[in-house]
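User: I'm writing a short report section on ligand binding and want a predicted complex to refer to. Could you take this sequence and 3-phosphoglyceric acid and write out the structure as tokens? A short remark afterwards would be nice.
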Amino acid sequence: MRDAGTGEASVSQAATRNLTEALIGTGLVAVVVIDRVSDAAPLAKTLVAAGLPLVEVTLRTPEALASLRAMADTPGAVVGAGTVLTPAQVAAAVAAGARYVVSPGLSAAVVRECAALGVPCVPGVATATEIQRALEHGLDVVKLFPADVCGGPAMIRALSAPFSDVRFVPTGGITAASLPDYLALPSVLAVGGSWMAPRSLVAEGDLAGVAELSRDAATLARAARAGVSR
Ligand code: 3PG
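Assistant: Sure. The structure tokens for the complex follow:
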């Protein structure tokens, strides 16, 4: 993420560097949908203990912001907000402790608010045109979304030819089976997904199930990225 000199406040370079390092370090972002705030802190502890400190709390439920706050207070967790569609949601998420903001698409208003608040922004892109728009905003880390249906690893490989400096966090429809193919690509910083903490298991309070899926996913990610430099 570069300062494009657009007049927007620069995103803190340190915050961006920290996020990039965390993404590379883990290779996986756990995307969660939380219905009860009481589930949030135990879930965060479970994910961190399983080796998945990066958590994206989607702003899709009434208790999402309170859940984000509870997770952000969990030692070791690096918590961001997902499904962020408006500047007001950016502000609310940052106030709740979000350290990064993820959107399904690219909104100039969301990008500007993130810049103003000094929080890294990872916009969703699905086309070359959208990547060019992201670059115009000074953003070179993007989320390919929905990754599985918009071309998967082959799409990223193709986009990386003209956009060799762009780094991807593909999300949407990725599974344990497809994870290795994404992480084998040098332009993929990390993959996002919900399979390791499914909403249904969280709602049932089955944290042992989440822990097992998460440990398996973390192990798979480590193995998949061994030897791939980013
Ligand atoms: C989402 O939109 O919920 C995220 O992209 C995660 O997608 P997934 O549930 O297909 O992993």
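A remark for your report: Confidence is low (pLDDT under 50) at residues 1-9. The chain has one domain: 13-221.
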